[in-house]
Amino acid sequence: MTPYRAWAAPAPGAALEPFEYDPGPLGAEEVEITVEHCGICHSDLSMLDNEWGFTAYPFVPGHEVVGRVTALGTHAKGVVLGQRVGLGWNASSCLHCDACLAGNQQLCREVQPTIGGRHGGFADKVRAHWVWVMPLPDGLDPAECGPLLCGGITVFSPLRELGIPPTARVAVVGIGGLGHMALKFCRAWGCEVTAFTTSASKEEEARAFGAHHVVTTGDAAALQALAGHFDLIIDTVNVPLDWNGLLAALAPKGKLHVVGAVLEPIAVPAFSLIMGQKSLSGSPTGSRGALDSMLGFAARHGVAPKTEHFPMRRVNEALDHLRAGKARYRIVLDADFDCTRTA
Q1: What pTM did the predictor assign?
Q2: N or C: which end of the chain has fewer CB within 10 A?
Q3: Terminal CA-to-CA distance of the chain, rounded, Å?
């Protein structure tokens, strides 16, 4: 079999280098995807640096894959050769546990991330179980929709899983890679949308992404004025926040939902939850059903991330751009398959 060509890090935090590997025989239920585009997510940086403690090296990042099906296992279903498909954070799950049978495959104890224990999409080809390989709706631009497959579903899931009605008042904390997509989804969902940002300079963009209102998080008076206001607050950032202030901004039965990977413990007094019957929750990406629902919703409502593009041979430059906080707002690599050149 012809080796797959990729970009891989040999050690934590190292620059990516050209890398080839033999993927072995195609599994009976596997799909091979020839990569056309692959988004870069902050999770790729976290895994590259082994922040979460389970990265295996050499490490090939990439879990926002868009490409064409070029090989099918004998028992693969749901896609056909030549079809354009997407692959997100998860590449495999057991399909027989209680979570999988209930349609929550993302919560499977044996779920395998696309970049956890396997090589990801910064490559010419990638593989996954057919359940996690999604046909893309015709209304989505294949060059732009990769970030929907991880970042997009991450912020769409709370609306779907928590039963948020279109009449809800929703706030989004952080107008970055996740937050700007959250604003777009919440606005298209029908909600009254408020953006919380540390930078007053982002107000115009936040409104363009769908925010009806913009609040600077450092403005304590503005936050106090919103006490009891929101039905849902989605936290998209990975830094500690004024948790008590955010809980106070919730209406009775309101929900503070965390999708940003905050590494520090979240300190919340019990009475902040008990009084007002409020809740603090979190979620990973989403089930296969949720992903299909999100992609269809995005196609119908014209929801797409704001992206910057780099050729894959410049992957290290793209990673440095993201690490420096300069991405506006998601980065997509356009696969050129030339792993003999220096990034």
Answers
A1: 0.96
A2: N
A3: 26
How far is the CA of 158 from the CAs of 152, 258, 300, in angstroms? 11, 9, 19
Peptide bond into 329 cis (omega under 30): yes
- Return phi, psi of residue 76, to 5°: -70, 145
Question: What mean pLDDT is predicted for residues 181-191?
Answer: 98
d(CA 299, CA 303): 7
Dihedral, CA of residue 195, residue 198, residue 203 and residue 205, to nearest 10:
-80
Amino acid code (one letter) for 274: I
CA distances from residue 267 to 224, 227, 264, 270 in whole angstroms, order as listed: 19, 19, 9, 10
- Strand 30-40 and strand 65-72: pairing? antiparallel
Q: Nearest 5°: phi and psi at 131? A: -60, -35
**Does the structure show a pLDDT above 80 at 323?**
yes
Element (H, E) at 86: strand 84-87
Q: Which helix H or strand E contains 301, and what residues bound it? A: helix 288-301
Distance CA 17, CA 112 (A): 24
Residues 3-45: tens digit of each pLDDT: 999 999 999 999 999 999 999 999 999 999 999 999 999 999 9
pLDDT of 153 above 80: yes
Local confidence band at 171 (pLDDT 50, 70, 90 cut-offs): very high
Backbone angles phi, psi at 67, to 5 degrees: -170, -165
Tens-place pLDDT, residues 91-126: 999 999 999 999 999 999 999 999 999 999 999 999
Neighbour tally for 317: CB within 10 Å: 11
